[in-house]
């Protein structure tokens, strides 16, 4: 009985911490969330890609509220490519691909860009989250 009560208390504590994170506007991390760090000099640029299947309605969106110091970087959508690899296939409905983003470092410091994979018309938490930390060094 004591083990069950201890387990119940732990689960309650985890639920409470998740609730606090949601109230604070920060979604708790999930197992499928990903992250990467880019190191750039001021004026430098990098491109990264995320798997996407827009035929399902899901697309990657920049979450400006969860991101930090976006004034240090410039982010642009570098396009979507269906399929994988360098081979260009005839477009087909339902075939996944990759969405690429380009980041340019404008000022030194550290910026965090948070991307959510979601259907923008639904009021649901994102299916996945990708965080890009950009560490920018002076020239």
Describe the protein in words:
The structure is a single chain. The protein is α+β, with helices and mostly antiparallel strands and 139 residues long. The protein folds into two domains: 1-30; 32-137, Immunoglobulin-like (Sandwich). It is 16% helix and 42% strand. The protein has one helix spanning 2-23, and strands at residues 34-41, 45-52, 59-62, 73-82, 97-105, 109-118, 128-137. The protein has a four-stranded mixed beta sheet with strand order 1-7-6-3, with no helix packed on it. It has a three-stranded antiparallel beta sheet with strand order 2-5-4, with no helix packed on it. The longest helix has 22 residues, at 2-23. 14% of the residues are buried.
Main sheet summary: 4 strands, mixed
Q: How much beta, percentage-wise?
A: 35-45%
Oligomer designation? single chain
Q: Total helix count?
A: 1
The overall average pLDDT, rounded, is 82
Would you list the SSEs in sequence order as H and E?
HEEEEEEE
Task: Tell me the span between the first and last alpha carbons.
Answer: 63 Å
Overall morphology = globular
Number of domains: 2
- How does the helix and strand content classify structurally? alpha+beta
CATH class of the largest domain: Mainly Beta
Q: What is CATH's topology name of the largest domain?
A: Immunoglobulin-like
Uncertain spans = 1-25
Number of E-type strands:
7
CATH architecture of the largest domain: Sandwich
Q: What radius of gyration results from the CA coordinates?
A: 19 Å
Helix content: 10-25%
Side by side, the strands of the main sheet go: 1-7-6-3
